[in-house]
Amino acid sequence: MVQVKIKKIKESAILPKYAHEGDAGVDLYSTEEYALKPGERTLVSTGISIAIPLGYEAQVRPKSGLALKHGISIVNTPGTIDAGYRGEIGVIIINHGQEDYTIEKGKKVAQMVFNKIEAVNFEEVEDLDDTTRGEGGFGSTGQH
């Protein structure tokens, strides 16, 4: 289990928690109320900051229930939080739905998942090895 230090930077902040044993993500909560018209986006305050250990990242992801029921998602999903960041965790919410949506203070707005990451060392070469896919990109598998 990874130890992550957390700091409330707003009194109304709710600490993230797992809803069920075995869940991949912890829930993030809004510290304020926001009203979003269809197509609008806003930065939602969670009121917390965290210290992620080196070698890890946190990803902020949409809540599937909000996406299905209301068309609420995250603009930059997943949003990456690097180990060196110590500012407030914000969630860039967008309303893809057809109706106005109110994000209530204290309600779940997103989930955060922690992942182990590996740093890479780039080696410049003249050629890359051949694969069966080669340079086939978007749509190369026949899916449209």
Elements, N to C (H/E): EEEEEEHEEEEE
Portion of residues in beta strands equals 25-35%
Number of strands: 11
Q: CATH topology, which one?
A: Deoxyuridine 5'-Triphosphate Nucleotidohydrolase, Chain A
First-last Cα distance:
41 Å
CATH architecture: Distorted Sandwich
Low-confidence stretches: none
What's the number of domains?
1
Overall spatial form? globular
Mean pLDDT: 94
Number of helices: 1
Radius of gyration: 19 Å
- Strand line-up of the largest beta sheet: 2-11-6-8
CATH superfamily: Deoxyuridine triphosphatase (dUTPase)
List keywords for this structure.
single chain; 144 residues; three-stranded antiparallel β-sheet; 11 strands; globular
Describe the structure.
This protein is mainly β and 144 residues long. It has one domain: Distorted Sandwich (Deoxyuridine 5'-Triphosphate Nucleotidohydrolase, Chain A). It contains one helix and eleven strands; from the N terminus they run E-E-E-E-E-E-H-E-E-E-E-E. The strands form four sheets. The protein has a four-stranded antiparallel sheet with strand order 2-11-6-8, with no helix packed on it. A three-stranded antiparallel sheet has the order 4-9-7. It is globular.
What secondary-structure arrangement, pairings included, does this model have?
Elements: E1 5-8, E2 26-29, E3 34-36, E4 41-45, E5 48-51, E6 56-61, H1 64-70, E7 72-74, E8 79-81, E9 90-95, E10 101-103, E11 108-116
Antiparallel strand pairs: 1-5, 2-11, 3-10, 4-9, 6-8, 6-11, 7-9
